[in-house]
Amino acid sequence: MAGSSHGHTPAAWTGVTIAFIGFCVAGAFMVMAQPVGFWAGMAIVVLGGVVGAVMRAMGLGQPKNNHTVAHVAPAATREPVAAES
Q1: What CA–CA distances, in Å, run from 10 to 43, 60, 74?
Q2: Distance from C-alpha of 39 to C-alpha of 45, rounded to nearest angstrom
Q3: Is pLDDT above 80 for 18?
Q4: Which pTM was predicted?
């Protein structure tokens, strides 16, 4: 994972930060037994996901790489490899 830039984008940081704030708000209101505040915090969590997705669509996220994966036949159907001498 150290060799990639997975998640190191403005869209990811912003979305996760907003969602974290929402979890903190929801947790505080849960302890205070205030259901309306809890659900408001959960709405903030969803807002974080929406903001992250919109920012990604605007080009501030990780670009998608279309890697083609070569199909490898199962070992039982492969041709035997002659040993080099």
Answers
A1: 21, 6, 42
A2: 10
A3: yes
A4: 0.68
- C-alpha–C-alpha distance, residues 28 and 11, integer Å: 26
Helix or strand or coil: residue 76?
helix
> Where along the chain do its domains lie?
10-59
E-strand stretches of the chain: none
Model confidence pLDDT, tens digit, residues 60-83: 888 776 555 566 666 666 666 666
Output the CA–CA distances (angstroms, integers) from residue 71 to 23, 57, 74, 80, in the order listed.
43, 31, 9, 18
Distance between start and end Cα atoms, the chain: 40
Structure tokens at 23: 């979890």
The pair of structure tokens assigned to 38 is 């809890």
The two tokens of residue 76 are 């039982």
Cα dihedral value 20, 23, 25, 26, nearest 10: 170
